[in-house]
């Protein structure tokens, strides 16, 4: 009986040691979290794209770049539709996030993005601090070299980010039914319909080819 108890204790101790080592390894590989705010047209699309990227912790749809405080979807004049991307810098670098972003948009379009026209849908990278500014400028310059065309994506100081209303978050995977031009659809279906009809993936793929990270 005593032998069985000792064996059970030994096994339990080994399991605890293994769990501790696993936790230590996880912590050792985790890096500091960083936030980047970008504007790439429809914020549903940018959010959807980056939430699928390993190392990205979250992507939140919202507004940035304007002067008004607490903008809403119905009243955000002067603001861009933007997304705040939070990522683990130990798993994915800032430069990689920015490179993927630039190749997920049409940075040569000065009038908006795809079927969405107007100032709110223009592209930009908002920086916080000198390091983010330098990284953003490099990403824009690299995109210009790769395309051989003028890049109009702006690099702007971050003067605030305002999350959009709750119904805009994770729109691409919601089962809630909404009324669309094609009739009642779940938000997820409506999103897929909109993205295809807007030509986002087709345009990005035509522009960037195999370098486009999200175009289907």
Blueprint of the fold:
Elements: H1 2-29, E1 33-40, H2 43-51, E2 56-64, E3 80-88, H3 94-102, E4 112-113, E5 116-117, E6 123-127, H4 130-147, E7 154-157, E8 161-163, E9 177-180, E10 183-186, H5 187-198, H6 200-208
Helix pairs in contact: 3-4
Shape: globular
Kindly report how far apart the N and C termini lie. 63 Å
Strand order of the largest sheet: 7-6-1-3-2-8
Order of helices and strands: HEHEEHEEEHEEEEHH
Total helices: the number is 6
Summarize the structure in words.
The chain has 216 residues and is an alpha+beta fold. It is 39% helix and 23% strand. The chain has 6 helices and 10 strands, in the order αβαββαβββαββββαα. The protein has helices spanning 2-29, 43-51, 94-102, 130-147, 187-198, 200-208, and strands at residues 33-40, 56-64, 80-88, 112-113, 116-117, 123-127, 154-157, 161-163, 177-180, 183-186. The protein has a 6-stranded mixed beta sheet, covered by helices on one side. A two-stranded antiparallel ribbon has the order 4-5. Helix 3 (94-102) crosses helix 4. The longest helix is centred in the N-terminal third of the chain and has 28 residues, at 2-29. The radius of gyration is 22 Å and the shape is globular. 31% of the residues are buried.
């Amino acid at each position: 009986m005593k032998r069985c108890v000792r064996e059970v204790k030994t096994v339990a101790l080994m399991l605890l040691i293994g769990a501790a080592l696993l936790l230590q390894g996880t912590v050792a590989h985790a890096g500091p979290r960083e936030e980047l705010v970008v504007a790439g047209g429809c914020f549903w699309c940018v959010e959807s794209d980056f939430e699928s990227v390993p190392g990205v912790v979250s992507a939140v749809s919202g507004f940035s770049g304007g002067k008004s405080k607490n903008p809403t979807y119905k009243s955000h004049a002067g603001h861009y539709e933007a997304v705040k991307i939070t990522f683990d810098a130990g798993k994915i670098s800032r430069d990689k996030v920015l490179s993927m972003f630039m190749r997920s948009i049409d940075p040569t379009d000065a009038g908006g993005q795809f079927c969405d026209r107007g100032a709110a849908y223009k592209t930009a990278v908002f920086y916080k601090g000198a390091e983010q500014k330098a990284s953003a400028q490099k990403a824009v310059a690299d995109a210009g070299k790769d395309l051989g065309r003028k890049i109009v994506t702006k690099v702007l100081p971050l003067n605030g980010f305002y999350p959009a209303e709750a119904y805009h978050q994770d729109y691409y995977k919601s089962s809630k039914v909404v009324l669309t031009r094609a009739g009642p659809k779940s938000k997820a279906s409506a999103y897929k319909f909109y993205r295809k009809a807007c030509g986002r993936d087709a345009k990005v793929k035509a522009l960037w080819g195999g370098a486009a990270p999200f175009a289907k």
